[in-house]
Amino acid sequence: MHSAHPGLPEFDYVKPASLAEASAFLKAHVGEARPFMGGTDTFVRMRDGFWKEKYLVDVKHLEGMQDITYDPAAGLVIGAAVNMNRVVASPLVKEHYPLLAEAAHSVASYQLRTRATIVGNICNASPAGDTTGACIAFDARLKVHGVDGFRFEPLQTFFKGPGKTVLQPGDIVVSIHFPPAPRGAQGKYIKLGRNAIGDLSIVGITVLGYPDASSSSGYRFKIALASVAPTPFVPAPAEALLAEKTITPALLEEAAQAAMDACKPIDDVRSSAVYRKAMVRNLTHKALVDVWGRLSAAAR
What we know:
Blueprint: E1 12-14, H1 19-28, E2 33-36, H2 42-47, E3 55-58, E4 68-71, E5 75-79, H3 84-89, H4 91-96, H5 98-105, H6 110-113, H7 118-123, H8 132-137, E6 141-146, E7 149-154, E8 159-161, E9 164-165, E10 172-178, E11 186-192, E12 203-211, E13 219-226, H9 236-244, H10 249-262, H11 273-299
Parallel strand pairs: 1-3, 2-3
Antiparallel strand pairs: 4-5, 5-10, 6-7, 6-10, 8-9, 11-12, 12-13
Helix pairs in contact: 9-10, 10-11
């Protein structure tokens, strides 16, 4: 009898003493070694035979990996090994980036969130990632350590396809950095799944809106869509409409239609492309109405 889940393959556990040691080991064992922190995806994919690395390199104990810090001038820094429940519970995140806490709370179950991390969610490069949209809306950057030292990678150019990023052999993401949130910002994340808790998104809608005197409408909206393209998707035409025209109920409907028209989802086992497109329009409109309601109330 064959088991659908035969168990984990054999591998060696490596615990480097420094980032330099970790990067050097990963570079020297390309195709054989993988860094891990929470392991929520790593162990599942190894169990199912998709990943067959001989070495798992534990980096979650290295410097800065477990820290959450905030500075009013510099913004928020979340270490790569900070689990999602810590993000959800953090007073700093809840006060200054509540949209991020809302998105993190939507991920899987409480038990899984004690291991899962925002950086892991991003580095998996899943088009269905729940926290990626909020990170894009807040213009977050990843701090990466490679064999040549540190560098920053903006999220706008980080994703190259499902499961593919700009990371190179030896690269380790150390933390994610958020600039100060726009003053007066309001946000909303809406996740549509096949069940209420723990499912991957069929469609995920992130909207962040804030006053902006430089735009014709007096406001700026950031929109990010999950599960509708090979990478996290920003419907630029919808954002442009909301910046260029006076915000009205009719414009919110027009922007939601523009978001739907901009994306080209696929059919898969969880949903048809036609249904996804319809839900992009409906849920983007719902999120925009919610965010605009709070923005306009704050302006009165």
